[in-house]
Amino acid sequence: xxLFKEAAFQLxxxxxxxxxxxxxxxxxxxxxxLDGHWSWWLRIEGHFVQLQPEKRAACDREVKDALxxxxxxxxxxxxxxxxxxxL
Length: 87
Fold this sequence. Notes:
- By secondary structure, the chain is of the alpha+beta class.
- It has one domain (5-86).
- The chain has helices at residues 5-15, 34-42, 53-68; strands at 22-32, 76-86.
- The longest helix is centred in the last third of the chain and has 16 residues, at 53-68.
- The chain is elongated.
- The two termini are 23 Å apart.
């Protein structure tokens, strides 16, 4: 589920209507190795349990290849989008 800034504001404003609600957002980018990225990918592997082994292997290869195309001298970047809700 993606919760965007405006949707978060509306949601919290409904619950805390008698208070002042503010929602900010930030983006932080980090660099990691392929192994670091892959450890996160494995956390969602439950989505792939129905795939036949050969299709799963092909999917894994394609994801690793795609991640490698993003590599910079600092590593493979990823960005965390955070919402900051204040009451």
